[in-house]
Predict the 3D structure of the following.
Amino acid sequence: MNRAASGILPAIAVDRRSPTPLHKQIYDGFRSAILRRELRPGQRIPSSRELAIELRVSRFPVLNAYAQLLAEGYFESSVGSGTFVSSALPEQRMSVALPRTSVNKPSGPRPVARGSRLYPDFENQPAIRGWGAFGVHQPALDQFPFQLWSSLVAHHSRNPHANAIHHINPLGTERFREAIADYLRAARGVKCEVDQIMIVSGSQQALDITARVLFDRGDPVWVEEPGYRLQRSVLTAAGCIPVPISVDNEGMNVAAGIRARRKARAAFVTPSHQYPLGVTMSASRRLQLLNWAQTVGAWIIEDDYDSEYRYESMPIASLHGLDVNQRVIYIGTFSKVLFPSLRLGYIVIPPDLVERFVAVRHVMDIFPPYLYQEVLSDFINEGHFTRHIRRMRQTYGEKRTALVESLKAEFGRELEIHGAEAGMHLAMTLQDGLRDTGIAARAGRERLWLWPLSPSYLGEKHRNGFILGFGSIPRDQISASVRHLRTIISSK
């Protein structure tokens, strides 16, 4: 590929009458061209000025589209040379090429296990005992519109619909699932219909139901290393064998997974904001993962737990949106973006697995509670949800900046910060010789709620550090809390 050649103007059309913003039309056009192999790795992309002139649009939507494609790893840029299709993308024709129709038929082997065995594994998690600095997954409750929420709760408590209260549907109320489907299609790029969505009591139940449906005892399953401990507890309870696959700055190392256990039954990933290190899975890794799953007949479980909050680019599109072979089970939750005790989440299920998920759900608790489904349906449909997300993205962005600046001021080069670009937490790793679990226990006695990093590793090799949540701590208290943290670490 001659990278010095003039950029070829791709066949991208924009429709000014479409409700889809121009930058999204341009982004979709490039991504489709890349995934269909119409644009190849290393191929030069025309400058934003050239494309704006060709499309007869302002340069701003072109710049926004290019920024998102760079953030997701479809483009790469070189100072003085220009912008190119990422050379890290696979050269071979990919099984994830975008479909030309909206409906995709399942293909290839699709093994399904009974997944009916459960062996609980309870963990001691002192970091969740208290509220405040630096509690993980704790939102800024002082910013939540409780007065509005209370009025919606009161309305549905006074005027319940008899058919909704009496009707038993393991998937959840149709009205709530319609609201979620509309939101996921528009905001997360998830290709789904109402009948594919199951309402659950948070992401943990979603993981449990998924494990019961898909896995048999002894099945090997890829998990991120480091990764989410409660996810591993679910797999252990199901009798699976978690296979730790290293995470680097591009997300799960798919090639390492293939070397370790090529014919694993599934892979659990957090591609938009990896937990706990916070990296975003690159476009190349996403395509490799989907190709692997289709080739060996495996499943991918995508936990999209806090993707709404991204501070240096637009939210990253879901992995599910790239899947044309119905290999991805998508899990989302309202616990992080609203409040944890709400206990509402959802699963987007491949159509041919819906009956199996329903059967397992019916055995577990028959169907989800009615009231908060109706309340949240109104909260979403009346626009309150998107306004709240927009407001909290700014609030958390300011807190994130204050935390990063305070950590750098107090610790300098003694620590490394990971994953500050998105979400409600970041990770910090410590210099050798410091034991994070001991420091966390000592900090808890002084009301600093540190979540140690080392228990997030399954293997013997691990890094010491902390996962620091910044959602619940007031911005004006962040600097003092970091100084307190510095004092505790220095008193080792």
User: Anything to note?
Assistant: The two ends are 56 Å apart (CA to CA). The chain has three domains: 22-85, 126-134+386-490, 160-382. DSSP finds 15 helices and 15 strands in the chain. Residues 1-5, 114-124 have pLDDT under 50 and may be disordered.
